[in-house]
Amino acid sequence: MIPLPSLKALGLAAGILVLPSVILAQVPTPQELARTTPAGNYLAGKEANALRDAAAASAYYMAALRADPKDPELLELAFYSVLADGDIDEATRLADRLLAADKTNRNARLILGVRALRFKQYGTARQQFAQAARGPITDLTATLLQAWAMQGAGDGTGGVALIDKLAGPDWYAIFKDFHAGLILDLSGNKKEAGKRFARAYKLEPTALRIVQAYASWLSRNGDKDQALKVMEEFEKSLPNHPLVVDALNELKKTGKLPMLVDNPQLGAAEALYGLGAALGRREEELSLANRGLAYLQLALFLNPTNHLALLSLGDLYDAMKKPELAIAAYEKVPADSPIKRLADIQVAIDLDSLDRTDEAKKHLQQLISAHPDNLEAILAFGGILRERKQYAECADVYSKAIGNIPNPDRSNWTIFYFRGICYERAKQWDKAEADLKKALELYPDQPHVLNYLGYSWIDQGINLDEGMRMIKKSVEQRPDDGYIVDSLGWAYFRLGQYDEAVKQLDRAVELKPTDPTINDHLGDAYWKVGRTLEAKFQWSHARDLKPEPEELAKIEQKLKTGLVEEASSADARKPGEGG
C-alpha cells in the first residue's frame, strides 16, 4: 500500500488528483468518496477543516484513512474531525488505534478517559486522565475530570485535594473553587462546599452556573432568603432569563433548589461544558474553537440532554457560520427545558439566514400564538422583518412587544429604537422621531440612537446644530465604529463641509474597508473636493463590494458621468442601525 506522502506527491506531480466536483457544499456521499482518490480525499478534508466543516472533514479523512489505515497523520486527522463532528463512539475507536501506535498521545487518553467515566470505570478513567495533561487548558481539563473520577470511586476528598494542588494562571481559580464545591456537596461535606461556592461567587457573581450552584446550596442549607437575594441580584444583569425565572419561582414555591449535579458523570459533563462554552467564545481562533467544539461534544456524550451544552453548541455553530448544524443542535434541546424557547427562537433566526424566511416566520408565529407574552420571540420576528425591509409590518410587530411592557425601563430601549427605524423607513417620521426620543429617554446618550436621530435631523435639514452634536457625541463613545464615523462624515457632506467630510470618511473606510456604502460616500466626498481620480477608484471599489441593486445603479452612473447631485446616494442613505 502506498503511504500517504507518496500519494500526495503522486497526485500533485502527475496532475491526476481527483477532487469532488462540488467541494463542501454538503457532506459527500459514499459514491462521491469512492470516485475520489485518497490524496483527493485528504486535501478535501484539509479544506473542510479550514472551513470548519467538521462533518465533511470527517467523511473525507475517514475515506482517506480506509485507503491507508496505518498512516499516523491520517489517523490523527480523522480522530480530531470525527470528535469535532460529535461521533464520540467512532472517536474512541480511533483513540484506541492512536494509542496502539503512540502510547504518549494525550488527547486520545482524554477521550478514552471520558468513555471510561461514562461507564463508571473510575479507576481506568483516572489512569487515562492522569496521562492526558499538557498545556494550560488540558492541564485544567484533565485535573477536573480526574477529580470527578475519584469522586465516583468514593474519594471526593482526594479529588478536591488534587484540584487544590493544581497550579496555573489566575483564571483557573473560578473553575477550581466551583468544581471543588460541587464535589464536596455531592460527597456530603456541606460546610466546605459552601465555602467553595462562596469563593467562586465572589470571583464571578455574574456567571450563571456559579450563581445557580451557590443559590442551590444556600436554599438546601437553611438560607432561603439569601438564596433569593443571590438570584434576584443576578437577574438584574440578565433580566427574564428562563433559568433564573424558573429558579426564583421554585424558591418562592418550595424554598429549595435541587443540586446542580447529582452524579460524577454530570459533574464531568459540567466541567467539559464550562470549558467548551468559554473556548467557543474565542471562535475567531480556530484551534480554540475546535477544542471548544470537542469539549461540548464530550459533555453531551456524558449527558446527552445537557440543555446548556446544546445551546452553547448551537451558538458556536452560529459563530462559525454553520446555521444548518446550529439548527440541529437547538432542536435537540429537550421540550421540557426552560431554555427550549430560546433554542426555538434561534432556530427561526437560522432558518431566515438560510433564506427560508417563510419557515422562520411560521415558526415564530407559532411560538407567539402559544405564548403571546413571549417578548423574545416577538423581537426576533420584528428583527427578521426589519432585515427583510418589511418596515410597516415590523413596526406592527414591535408595537405588540411594546404593548406587553406596562412600564418600560432602560432594558427596553432597543424595542423603541428598532420600531423607530421601521417607522422612519416606512416614511412615518413623526412616529419614528417619537420612538427615537423615547429610546433616548430610557437610555440617555445611547450612541446608536444619538447617531440615528442626529443623522435623520441633518438629512432633513432640521435641528442641524443639535443633530451634529448628537453624532459627535456618538463618535466620542464609539470612535472605532466605522458606521458611526461614516454618519459623521456624511453629515458634514450634507452640510457642504466637504474637507471635513473627506477626513471623517477616510477614517470610516479604514475602520470598515469592505462596506460598499462607506466607500461610495468617500468617493462622493473626493469628487466634491476635486480629487476625481480617487473618487472613481472609490466608486469602482464600492461597485465591486456588491452594494444593494438600487445603489449599484447609482454608482455605475457616477462612474460614467461623475457626481451629479440628482444621482448622489445622499437621499437614499440611512445611518447604520447598530444596537
Structure in words:
With 579 residues, the protein is mostly helical. It has a domain at 1-85. The protein has 32 helices and no strands. It has helices spanning 4-14, 30-34, 38-50, 54-67, 72-85, 88-101, 106-118, 122-130, 136-152, 156-165, 172-186, 190-203, 208-220, 224-237, 242-254, 264-280, 286-302, 307-319, 323-331, 340-353, 357-370, 375-387, 391-403, 413-425, 429-442, 447-460, 464-477, 482-494, 498-511, 516-528, 532-544, 549-561. The radius of gyration is 28 Å and the shape is globular.
Which key terms come to mind for this protein?
single chain, 579 residues, mainly alpha, 0% strand
Tell me the fraction of residues in β-strands, as a range. under 5%
* Helix percent band: over 70%
List unreliable stretches of 5+ residues: 1-25, 566-572
Distance between the termini: 58 Å
Mean pLDDT metric: 89
Summarize the biggest pleated sheet: none
Please give the number of β-strands.
0
Radius of gyration: 28 Å
**Given the C-alpha coordinates, what overall shape results?**
globular
